[in-house]
Amino acid sequence: MEKEDIEYRRQVVDKYRPDVERLIRYLPWLEEKAAAGGGVSELFGDNGIREHSITFPVYDGTLMSFIKEVQQTALLDRNYPYVYSRCRIRTVQDELNAIARADIKEMNVLSGILSKYVLGGMTKGRMWTEAVTNRVFLQVVRKMKENIEFWDKPMC
User: Residue 106 CB: number of other CB atoms within 10 A?
Assistant: First the structure.
């Protein structure tokens, strides 16, 4: 392995480690929800509201904390469509395959997939639920942690 390659990997670890450390605390919750098949929102429409108004989703507090945490990191990439076109990602299965293949050099791919759901969910709320149900959030955070731990010390 060349010295430049090792230095590049060190830079990637240094860039992503603080943000990934903030997100790994959500792994147990994401695992629990993925195993249970989602269940991170319910429709607010009780007490006769449904007949006179529009129902709207109310999200799990932990999910909202996770979303806000991601929004405060450098992981959020508003140019995520470029990642999708460059990697030819079109379906959820394509996303999961890209996540599984991603190594430390493709942390931007993981960041792009995460960004699609976090940013998209701000206008289409079902995307957050889909990301939990399809295990996308879980797999992205797990893979980021795994990549960093492979090239650096373990994270708690």
Answer: 18
